[in-house]
Amino acid sequence: MPSRPAMQFIPNPAPETWPSLQQRPAAGEAPQVAARVRAIFEQVRAGGDAALRQLAAELDKATLTNLLVSEAEFAAAIAQVPAELQAAIRQAKANIEAFHTAQREPEIRLETMPGVVCSRRSVPVQRVGLYVPGGTAPLFSTLLMLGVPARLAGCPEVVVCTPPQLDGSISPVILFVAQLLGIDKVVKAGGAQAVAALALGTPSVPAVDKIFGPGNRYVTAAKQLAAAEYGVAIDMPAGPSEVLVIADSSANPAFVAADLLSQAEHGPDSQVIVLSDSQEVLEKVQAEVLSQLETLPRRKVAAQALENSRAILLPDAAAMLAFSNQYAPEHLIIATDNADAQATQVTNAGSVFLGNLTPEAVGDYASGTNHTLPTSGYARQYSGVSLDSFVKKITFQRLSSVGLQAIGPVVETMAEAEGLVAHARAVTVRLASLAAGSASNGTALMAKPANPYAGLIRPSVERMQAYSSARDEFEGLAPVMLDANENSLGSVGPDDFSRYPDPHQRAIKADLALIKGVSPDQIFLGNGSDEAIDLLVRLTCTPGQDSIVICPPTYGMYEVAANLNDVRVKRLPLTADFQLPANAAATLAASKAKLVFLCSPNNPTGNLLAQEAIETILANFRGLVVVDEAYADFADALSWISRLTEFPRLVVLQTFSKAWGLAGLRLGVAYASPTLISYFNKIKPPYNISAATQQHALAALANAPQLPGMRAELLQGREWLGQQLSQLPIVEHIFPSDANFLLVRFNVDATAAYDELSSRGIVVRNRTTQPGCAGCLRLTVGTASENAQLVQALAEIGTAVPTN
């Protein structure tokens, strides 16, 4: 070995000595660190912003007048970041987004037994604090690693804390990344005091629900204190950086040395360990470490870290993997000739880098994985930061009477066995109520007819033979396709439209089913939702004989479809606050209509219809209940898709035109029972969805994880537009909206206001003739620029139109 080893060399240590070799450098200082951190928390609790400024002067040697980064500082940052670095950051951001987007999970929905439906969906953590280490090396990459998944998860409030530089500024690169991610609250605070501020809150720093980010031992201790005593969640204990390298005779010593130094330069309390079954490799690694160390700008920091680092000779690969799993490193590099096979035996590690060409540095910056990882052996219990770190998984359950009758006795038995009588009683009283209802009706309360659609489907549809296209008789492609009378001389290639499209859109339904938590046979795809509306009328209503019910003000195509098919329209008007009337279920039950259309969120009013009212209709109305959810993605309510199993006569309509931003595709979706969908397929045109539409829809489904971000941006725009409109004198009332538009009542002539807007090149929808909408315009939420133009125009024309 070299005469001046950079790392302690330990040959063939006995397994019982391994724990002592795996001690982290700062372990012995834990009590002193904890005491100092507790004192800082008390100081921040008592002094708030003033304490943060005082600690910045004491610990960071920075004099601060404002704790928050100003707009001017943000504006100046971009010019200070070289174009080459900006491009590199954008590429890293794209890779991180791609990897974390793939981590999204669709809503899980399962009927565990008949009538017992359980589901789980992800909800973003509402307020998150991101700690970005600064000090001698501002780690803007950490902001990428934390900010990207926070934005993808849709966290509404994101606060960044990072230490100030000596002049009281924040690194321009950190500010550039913050702007790139759309984060505008950056606090000039580092160390334990930043964590204290995020946990406790101060006048400038909002208290958060969860704190993320790595840091030194003080930051780690502060996060643990925040979690233990202040009820603030943390991502994990992520302290001083560390790496363990497993190197066999195939390893390149220069590569290994570079990897060790890349972690050693983080800080004096970092730790690096190299294991090998070859003493020659260890000697060469040691020599390379000494050689490369001399040229490092941060060689003093790295040299201090090397004093606590080790080169350990072990007999074979099994021993090296056993040592590594016991050590549980933050970063594990397997620089061997069979790294992939050995990786299957890794049980404890934050992130693993396989082969001689995979430096740990790629994970730190740009491969796409997250570099915020558990240290100090916590990889035995914790994972690194991921998209899951920024969401909560909430479970839901719903029972029908069938479900309660099936599972109720099970719950009663178990609750009584535990001596929890009230638990059992909560079931018993419901079962008794069902039994009483059954007795009074003389029938089983929730007994379902053998065919829930008896008398609902047009007799002519029941009798008809469905059209069978060529693609129904032969699926897929063959070398010679002469079955469909296509023009085989048409164009070829990726945009070849000479062939008929898949008439059943199988690939779209498969992808959509995973996202929505249904089966493909519960999905019908139409040429816009309007095709599904038309088919529903034709499927159930005999012309000149049957009727449908609509609830004005509502979407106009329901009535158009009825008129085109010579079907009567009955109206059940909404109340003044645009809800279903109290007698809605009784009125519908007496109507003998075949269909009722319920638009929720409603168009043009934007509000959700009350869940209880719809449930009552579903329980009592014998026709099909169509819940049109074109705008449901902008609302917080659970989709009625989750109730399809419970209510066989329920049909849910959705569309790609709204939240997906793909109105030009003209792709609508109906969700219903497989039996109802089979009727849709029986009467639909043979190739109702074009090949081009199918291609674009599949591309959109592949990018489905981006929808929450788009939704969040649009809802922010809706909130801003509502706030601005409420300040205009000509606005009388803004109706609550769960859609991507606002219904606004004006105290001036709404039609004149509409004409004035049109003359300025701004087109909205005049709804003043709709029932209950007198004086109203419907304003779609546009881009930030379009919203601003609309508000400015309304402000200017306020005095140019006559009052009501």
Automatic annotation (TrEMBL):
Catalysed reactions listed for this entry: L-histidinol + 2 NAD(+) + H2O = L-histidine + 2 NADH + 3 H(+); L-histidinol phosphate + 2-oxoglutarate = 3-(imidazol-4-yl)-2-oxopropyl phosphate + L-glutamate
Cofactor binding mode and count: Binds 1 zinc ion per subunit.
Aminotransferase class I/classII large domain segment(s): 496-794
Keyword Methyltransferase on entry: no
Pathway annotation: Amino-acid biosynthesis; L-histidine biosynthesis; L-histidine from 5-phospho-alpha-D-ribose 1-diphosphate: step 9/9; Lipid metabolism; Amino-acid biosynthesis; L-histidine biosynthesis; L-histidine from 5-phospho-alpha-D-ribose 1-diphosphate: step 7/9
One Pfam family of this chain: Aminotran_1_2
Catalytic residues in the record: 330-331
Residues annotated as signal peptide: none
Transmembrane segments annotated in the record for this chain: none
Cited SUPFAM superfamilies: ALDH-like, PLP-dependent transferases
InterPro entries reported for this sequence: Ald_DH/histidinol_DH (IPR016161), Aminotrans_II_pyridoxalP_BS (IPR001917), Aminotransferase_I/II_large (IPR004839), HisP_aminotrans (IPR005861), Histidinol_DH_CS (IPR001692), Hstdl_DH (IPR012131), PyrdxlP-dep_Trfase (IPR015424), PyrdxlP-dep_Trfase_major (IPR015421)
Chain positions with N6-(pyridoxal phosphate)lysine modification: 658
Organism field: Hymenobacter glaciei
Protein task: Catalyzes the sequential NAD-dependent oxidations of L-histidinol to L-histidinaldehyde and then to L-histidine.
Protein's name according to its UniProt entry: Multifunctional fusion protein
Keywords: Amino-acid biosynthesis, Aminotransferase, Histidine biosynthesis, Metal-binding, NAD, Oxidoreductase, Pyridoxal phosphate, Transferase, Zinc
Positions bound to NAD(+): 131, 193, 216
Gene name in the database record: hisC
Superkingdom as given in the UniProt entry: Bacteria
Cofactor: pyridoxal 5'-phosphate; Zn(2+)
Positions annotated to bind Zn(2+): 263, 266, 364, 423
